[in-house]
Amino acid sequence: MRIDRLLVTGAAGMLGGVLRRHFQGRFPHLRLSDVAPLGAAAAGEELLPCDLGDAAAVDRLFDGVDACVHLGGHSVEGDWPTVINANILGVINVWEAARKAGTKRILFASSNHAIGFHPRSRRIDHTAPARPDTRYGLSKAFGEDVAMYYANKHGISALCMRIGSARAEPEDERQLATWQSLPDFCRMVEAGLAADYVYEIVYGVSANQRSWWDNANAARLGYHPQDDAEAWADRLTGKTSASALDETYQGGPYCSPDFSGDP
Ligand code: NAI
Ligand code: 15L
Predict the structure, then answer these.
(1) What are the residue ranges spanned by the domains of the chain?
(2) What backbone torsions phi and psi does residue 254 show, to the nearest 5 degrees?
(3) Is 12 in the pocket of ligand 1 (CB under 6 A)?
(4) Residues 140-190 pLDDT 10s
(5) Mind telling me the catalytic residues?
(6) 117: which of 29, 163, 175, 228 is 20 to 30 A away, CA to CA?
């Protein structure tokens, strides 16, 4: 697929900054957007600030866009108004704008919190149904379904990346399973831009020995992670949550806040 103009939303964020550096000079036009300041444009960059909840602004954002890596949104648990604006209205506005602009592909930053209430004792793959652990996780599950609807109905191919814990280094025992190194995150995005598919789900995770996720679907699509959180095991083993509930479920510390169910 030829990409003349790639759009990255959430470009002022942590992973957006990683991709901005990774893609420098790579496409004729790299369009970057966020509601937060984006700094100065480098050669080949187009900076278009916008709130994802503003449909007209998102329509303008997609003008001339061939493919999009959609990272923008509220990236942790939040109250309903915040989650609805950034992650519910936001994904509707993104896919609707893509449809109108003729954009061919969207890579969506979903989250492990869409499946956070699967127990750690269960190894799951890309066919696992949503089990959101938060309003945030529910919004990511919704985003995955929006992506599927527009893929099947309007031919916008979509890769839903259920990212675990993408950061420079894992920070606790749970992340020995869920960590994705930043180079592996870039490898996953590269595979998602290059492969041939209509709608797929993959896990955004490194080649961790302790992973709870069978990521064969990602390997089939060309994602071959190079890193393994086990290198941090000596330092992080035993660094766990005080909550038994958090330690039972894959979503970890997102599970116990506000919990009033039957564990
Ligand atoms: P981040 O919080 O650093 O970046 C998100 C960006 O979205 C921010 O720059 C923020 O200003 C922007 N944003 C928020 N609300 C917006 C709105 N209404 N309109 C426009 N922009 C808005 O998060 P990070 O870590 O870079 O994550 C990027 C994406 O990946 C997020 O969608 C997050 O949910 C997802 N993700 C990240 C994981 C990680 O471990 N870093 C794990 C799972 C999912
Ligand atoms: C996420 O979805 C968040 O965006 C990230 O900040 C981490 O908390 C991550 O999940 C995680 O589960 O470690």
Answers:
(1) 5-254
(2) -80, -15
(3) yes
(4) 999 999 999 999 999 999 999 999 999 999 999 999 999 999 999 999 999
(5) 136
(6) 228
